[in-house]
Amino acid sequence: MTRDSRRCAPAAGLALVLLISALVPVQAGGDDPAHILVPTGKLRAALYPGTPTSILPDPGGQPRGVGYEIGKALADKLHVPYEPVVYAKNAEVLEAVKTGAADVAFTNASPARAKLMDFAPVYLRIELGYLVPDGSGLKEVGEIDAAGRKVGVTTGSSSDAELSRDLKNATVVRIPTIKDAIEQLSAHQIDAFATNKATLFEMAEKLPGSRVLDGRWGEERHAIAIPKGRDAGLDFLRDFTADITSSGLVGAAAARAGLKGVIASEK
């Protein structure tokens, strides 16, 4: 080997290393939870208005809602900016998580939804019930499933899925938004509206004379939802969920939002 060829060898080796480095993608962030759960660098939290489980407007300008506050705490824990995105319909929230347009949502962890997205452990359990309008003769949950009754549900909700299967005599009426449901109850176009009691009590405040029936037909189990393919971040979310429940963050957020119908945790 000549002196010149020996001098060129290290340079050629360096060039080869640089070429390989350019061709092989670097896994930036590695196992960093923020890199896994927030690929855009900011936490896009999908929220749905009109329910204290997600987000409510506040006269003072500061939003309330369990989902809103959990999202903010999660962004702080991950050290990333918080970007709450409010969708008009619950179905749009679910679609955003399903497609990855949102990074997290705070919703009922039903078996059907678990096929479309991944869930952290449950942080909140809420009674499912019915709201009836002013003048209704209905007194209890057991009277709902009768011929001629019209029961409203939010389109694509877990109540839609469950009651479409379980109600044998009443007719299920799918309604796009909570606002539309209030209008239909007010006009007596439906006999009752079904969802979690947190939302029902919020609706009742906007519908004079309406009543949330005693008893429940089921329960919602709320958890943080993430898009499929990000399950490497679930260990982090399990620890985060344990922290926000044991620290009292969930309970405090529920109290600030005026959330009712919570099922007490089993000791």
List keywords for this structure.
267 residues, alpha/beta, 37% helix, disordered N terminus
What order do the helices and strands follow?
HHEHEHEHEEHEHEHEEHH
Strands, total number: 9
By secondary-structure content and strand pairing, the structural class works out as alpha/beta
**C-alpha termini separation:** 79 Å
Low-confidence stretches: 1-29
Strand content: 15-25%
* Largest β-sheet summary: 9 strands, mixed
Question: How much helix is in the residues?
Answer: 25-40%
Rg is: 24 Å
> Any idea what the shape is?
globular
Q: Can you give the mean pLDDT?
A: 88
Q: What is the helix tally? A: 10
Written account of the structure:
The chain contains ten helices and nine strands. The chain has 267 residues and is an alpha/beta fold. Strand 1 (43-47), helix 3 (66-78) and strand 2 form a beta-alpha-beta unit. It is globular and about 55 Å long.
List the helices and strands and how they pair.
Elements: H1 3-23, H2 33-37, E1 43-47, H3 66-78, E2 82-86, H4 90-99, E3 104-108, H5 111-114, E4 117-132, E5 150-154, H6 158-166, E6 171-175, H7 178-186, E7 192-196, H8 197-204, E8 211-212, E9 218-227, H9 234-246, H10 249-256
Parallel strand pairs: 1-2, 1-3, 5-6, 5-7
Antiparallel strand pairs: 3-9, 4-7, 4-8, 4-9
